[in-house]
Amino acid sequence: MLSLNDPLLLKTQLFINGEWVNGDSGNTFPIVNPATGTEICKLASGNKNDTNTAIKCAQNAMQKWRQLTAKYRTQILKQWHALIMENIDDLALILCAEQGKPLAEAKGEIQYGAAYIEWFAEEAKRIYGDIIPSNNANQRLLTVKQPIGVVAAITPWNFPNAMITRKVAPALAAGCAVVVKPAEATPLSALALAELADRAGLPKGLLSIVVGVDAIEIGKALTDHPLVRKLSFTGSTKVGKLLIKQCADTVKKTSMELGGNAPFIVFEDADLDQAVQGAIASKFRNAGQTCVCANRFLVQRSVYQEFTEKFIEQTKKLIVGNGNTENVTMGPLINTDAVQNIHALVTDAERNGATKVLGGAASELGSNYYLPTILTNVTPQMRIFNEEIFGPVAPIIPFDTEEQALELANATEAGLASYVYTQNYARIWRFSENLENGIVGINEGIISSEVAPFGGVKESGNGREGSKYGIDDYIEIKYLCMGGI
Ligand code: SIN
């Protein structure tokens, strides 16, 4: 049992229309701690009827919410932010228990998630329209920005808090209502967030959380419902493509934050210590389970040996274990399937000529743990070069010229993040502009922030989360043409 300062933050029911309910089916399912394999609690399992109820209530609730002043919405969001920060220790414990990341990292995620609420609380007041010079002297043209309608948010298990707030906060700020379907492995953080939103005074129905074991059924209810006007999804490219197809029938607007295959490019003029520091931060954050984790290390041949040695030395310092234990810097993976998938990529690479210079095996700590791993002599023909690893494995590939590095970096359908380490300013501009990614870290391994636009190009998705652009996905522009003036 989790020892929380406020035990009421551990919820075991669905949150629909401002009420805690058991759901239509009356079924429950277990939530398991990936670090220990033990059950944290049983949770009510929602279905399509619960989802439809939440959508109808959302539609009702937003009629009033959208008419309120932006200043009023700002105050509620700021109160929600304040309550999250007051309860950061409990929220981090819940997150660590259901997801596995170390407690310090879990706290970092709560802060990161809360920052989106604070940011969009402010942005609510800046949803400006335009006055457009008309071609006719007797006309006045203007635009107003209006909430898009009920929003559905389907969120992943790797960031059970922040991936919710960065969708819900701009939606609420814009005047929308949201129905969230969190990942079934990590719903407790979502429910705790809903409890705090309720305490902050968010009117009933504006935020509902439908948790359930049947993700396909709930997802279909969200994508099929005509009242849902917008779907925001973070998750795999495969599921994203399916959801886009499902949304086509009702022509919903979609934002997709999908898989990545981030290249991490180290040129011979880079500060190698800085590059190694960035590599550790980018690769092993959340045990390698982020869409922006470095997936392929492209290192110029003249510094390949030196970079690899330094990288191995620093990687060895990672302490793997239960995230709830002091000093642990890398937790378990989300489940045993994840460990097996990652090991299959490593085995395939080895079979095709890669060299395992560190790790490369499941850990003795249990079936959900995988050792931090470094592979050298990796080639573009290997699966590990082409697939998103989503685990603590770093494949290193040598290159000779800038042109070759760019070709390797862009040789993927994914286009989320990339990283480039060089001291040459002309190259920084040239290379960054030619990378096919939505985000480029330059001499920097951690790029996420509520003030910056997060999102990808190519098959990594569309739309941007965070920053001044993040609210656009929840808004429709209406053009007013006034004649007879
Ligand atoms: C993700 O992995 O989807 C998000 C990572 C981040 O926000 O930094």
Instruction: Please state roughly what percent of the residues sit in beta strands, choosing from under 5%, 5-15%, 15-25%, 25-35%, 35-45% or over 45%.
Output: 15-25%
- How many structural domains can be distinguished in the coordinates? 2
Number of helices: 14
- Count of strand segments: 22
Summarize model confidence as the mean pLDDT.
Answer: 98
Main CATH class of the largest domain: Alpha Beta
Query: Which outline best applies?
Result: globular
Strand order of the largest sheet: 14-15-16-13-12-18-19
CATH topology of the largest domain: Aldehyde Dehydrogenase, Chain A, domain 1
| Derived structural class | alpha/beta
Bound molecules: succinic acid
Low-confidence stretches: none
Which percent range fits the helix content?
A: 25-40%
Quaternary: single chain
CATH superfamily of the largest domain: Aldehyde Dehydrogenase, Chain A, domain 1
Q: Span between N and C termini?
A: 69 Å
Largest sheet: 7 strands, mixed
CATH architecture of the largest domain: 3-Layer(aba) Sandwich
For the CA atoms, what is the radius of gyration?
23 Å
